[in-house]
Amino acid sequence: RVIDAVAASDAVRASVAHAASLGIRINVAVVDSGGNLAAFLRMPGAFLHSIDIAIDKAYTAASFGLPTSQWHAALQQHSDAVREGIVRRPRFVGFGGGLPMVENGQRIGGIGVSGGSEEQDEACAQAGLSAIGLKS
Amino acid sequence: RVIDAVAASDAVRASVAHAASLGIRINVAVVDSGGNLAAFLRMPGAFLHSIDIAIDKAYTAASFGLPTSQWHAALQQHSDAVREGIVRRPRFVGFGGGLPMVENGQRIGGIGVSGGSEEQDEACAQAGLSAIGLKS
Amino acid sequence: RVIDAVAASDAVRASVAHAASLGIRINVAVVDSGGNLAAFLRMPGAFLHSIDIAIDKAYTAASFGLPTSQWHAALQQHSDAVREGIVRRPRFVGFGGGLPMVENGQRIGGIGVSGGSEEQDEACAQAGLSAIGLKS
Amino acid sequence: RVIDAVAASDAVRASVAHAASLGIRINVAVVDSGGNLAAFLRMPGAFLHSIDIAIDKAYTAASFGLPTSQWHAALQQHSDAVREGIVRRPRFVGFGGGLPMVENGQRIGGIGVSGGSEEQDEACAQAGLSAIGLKS
Question: Which residues of C fall below an 8 Å CB-CB distance to A?
Fold first, then answer.
């Protein structure tokens, strides 16, 4: 299944609405299971770096099916070489704010938020998922 | 003035709704006056190349303040060197589907659509502008 | 549907076998519907440029659902601006050798071959499709 | 000697078969002694980041003639500057899953696998080598 345009748009709008309620400014992206950009929304004044961070958080979550906030702990069980190497890979983001989109056990994409703290970003991503009936 | 997130989202959704009414599948992007991505929406199955073409049409329209459909005629008044050089610049798109976003005479960004014919793409971009009370 | 690894591998091997029968050396690539590389095979001594040309032919065919050999004629019905602009887009290849992979009317990817003439390349791509029961 | 197309294809297929027996999904790449992609195969659903990681592991192994799993220990004998610098070089991968392809003492390429743990990835790469009569 591919996420449809209205659902993807509803998700990014819900993330932005949640950010507004928190008093922060974010960028938020949804990518499909192939990693292609499906939806994006930017609040004026959100950090410039956060445009790509949001997109790459979504990409990382879609790629591995893991919330990006869990990578730091997950990497503790790997060798030093992996721990130091993975974080340098292009488009990898290993901190919070990206959540996989899973439907009936199948990875259908990812959503990524950047602009606040890791916890705020993940809460905004979660609000995006909730708005379209998905759980993280 | 900077286009706000809800307006940018309304615009890309209106473009997608217009594309659906035409029976085509598009990607649509809005960039702000700084050229940064403000909103994006992809209809599943739209051409893959059109992701970046939509973004670059929006960028080109925001950059020069000219509908991208007018570039071909405009270039006839330039030297061969400009005519052949401009079209090779990264992120320049010289065919229809990108419209500047102008408010009270001030360029505030651009919207770009890719997925149909030039005329269809521009009509979708126009639908996006109209939805938020802007004229092209 | 996503093309499975064995089918993708069978396809590129059949293309290479056909190339060998023609006495040419090719590179051949399969990408999935999201444009991600699914399979690749290179005959030693095939042109170096052809590595990326093969991959981008597959990408272009998957993107638009059109044999890349049909683009030149198709572009005659577009404006000069589109005709000159599309061919300059990153990863666009507008000459023969790329075929879409379609199953039950649904685009599931593309196959691209580079190394011989356009006709030879397309014949090799066709051999790849035939080997896995797809028609172009 | 250059690895021929059938051998390269046999190698990536054997890696995929081994991955299937382990219940994991991988991407696997073979590059020749010139660092050019010779064969690639992706199992649907394998991590997106792993496409390039597999290719770069193969490249790194072909480049230095060392299993990528041995780099971390090898770097301990270098200066801090080298240790910190090498891992930042484009296309360098310093963790397990890449093996050089050596025949009669001559480096003829590399194979790289990404998608499982370092040990699983290296076992899959090893299965690829074994299938074509090479030792790591």
Answer: 32-36
- For the segment A41-70, what is each residue's pLDDT rounded down to a tens digit? 999 999 999 999 999 999 999 999 999 999
DSSP for chain A, written as a single string? ----HHHHHHHHHHHHHHHHHHT---EEEEEETTS-EEEEEE-TTS-SHHHHHHHHHHHHHHHHSS-GGGHHHHHTTS-HHHHHHHTTSTT---SSSEEEEEETTEEEEEEEEESS-HHHHHHHHHHHHHHTT---
CB–CB of B37 and A40 under 8 A? yes
Handedness of CA A94, A1, D121, C132 (dihedral sign): negative
A123 secondary structure, DSSP code: H
In three-state secondary structure terms, B128 is helix
Contact D53, D114 (CB under 8 A): yes
Residues in chain C: 136
Tokens (6 digits) for D88: 């930042």
D11-35: pLDDT as tens digits? 999 999 999 999 999 999 999 999 9
User: Which residues does chain C have within 8 Å of residue A35's beta carbon, measured at their own beta carbons?
Assistant: 34, 36
Closest Cα in chain A, distance from residue C36 (Å): 7
For C92, the closest of B49, B93, B96 (CB atoms) is B49
| Cα(A16)–Cα(A22) distance, integer angstroms | 10
Q: Is it the case that residue D2 has pLDDT exceeding 80?
A: no
Orientation of helix B49-64 relative to helix C49-64, angle to 10°: 90
- B48:A36 CB<8 A: yes
Q: Which chains touch A (3 or more CB pairs under 8 A)?
A: B, C, D
Give the closest residue to A5 by CA, choosing from B27, C109, B114, B32: B27
If we measure between CA atoms, which residue out of D6, D30, D28, D31 comes closest to residue D15? D28
Q: Is A38 helix (H, G, I), strand (E, B) or coil?
A: strand
Angle between helices A5-22 and B5-22 (to 10 degrees): 170
Closest approach of D134 to chain A, Cα-based (Å): 26
Supply the pTM of this predicted model. Answer: 0.97
